[in-house]
Design brief:
40% of the residues lie in helices and 9% in strands. It is built from ten helices and six strands. This is Pyrimidine 5-nucleotidase.
């Protein structure tokens, strides 16, 4: 079972989508009545603590269901994805070369379904993904990566009962470590620029290749052909 992160994994961080998202999230925090400095501090704290700023808001602030969907409208849905992203034939070929008799391919994202579907459509990858596991922003008690509940619920939806059959790639090191801690078989950290995540405030690492808690560290998706060679067709 292959689990693919979407944002900053299926497209490069150089698109600067993460930076654009950071600006929008900050503006959303301010729109809730938070002073600028406090909005920045809470945004950074919630991102580091929960892997998703909105998750912190839902846990510590009474924002209700309405604001969860407003977050999506104000942040994700206003991103200039059509201008910033483009389909990459090499990434499509990579996914096409996964032998589907050996592995199913699902997406595992902290985004809402509207954003996830939009990105996959722009990248021309939607037909290569069987299902999308996403964060339901309409539910105030939703879980997200790196929370264990998010991974276990994803497995339930996919009908997977054996953790050791799961392969996972993500650009967030905490997310990767959480999956590995649950016993997922082979976890790959996708690290393009030596940071623990594509977020503009993610801390740089001196030696990313030596990161602990993962099975492999790659800087190009093409490297999956080597680290996951057992799921690709022979002709690849």
């Amino acid at each position: 079972m292959v689990w693919l992160d979407i944002d900053n994994t299926l497209y490069p961080a150089s698109t600067r989508i993460a930076e654009a998202m950071t600006q929008r999230i900050h503006a959303f925090f301010v729109s809730l009545g938070l002073p600028d400095d406090e909005a920045h501090k809470l945004h950074m704290h919630y991102y580091k603590e929960y892997g998703l700023a909105l998750r912190g808001l839902t846990r510590h602030h009474d924002i209700g269901t309405h604001h969860g969907l407003e977050f999506d409208k104000a942040c994700d849905q206003t991103l200039p994805l059509e201008q910033a992203l483009a389909a990459d034939p090499a990434v499509r070929k990579l996914l096409q070369d996964i032998d589907r008799s050996k592995a199913r391919v699902w997406a595992l994202t902290n985004a809402y379904i509207t954003h996830a579907s939009r990105v996959l459509d722009i990248l021309n990858l939607r037909d290569q993904i069987e299902e999308i596991i996403y964060c339901d922003y309409s539910n105030p008690t939703f879980s997200c990566k790196p929370e264990p509940e998010f991974f276990t619920e994803a497995m339930k939806k996919a009908g997977v009962t054996d953790n050791s059959r799961c392969l996972f790639i993500d650009d967030s090191l905490p997310n990767c470590r959480a999956a590995k801690k649950l016993g997922w078989h082979h976890v790959v950290w996708f690290c393009e620029d030596g940071r623990a995540g594509a977020h503009m405030h993610a801390a740089p690492m001196e030696n990313p290749k030596a990161a602990e808690g993962v099975d492999a560290v790659i800087s190009s998706l093409e490297e999956l052909r080597d680290v996951w060679s057992f799921i690709f067709t022979d002709k690849s």
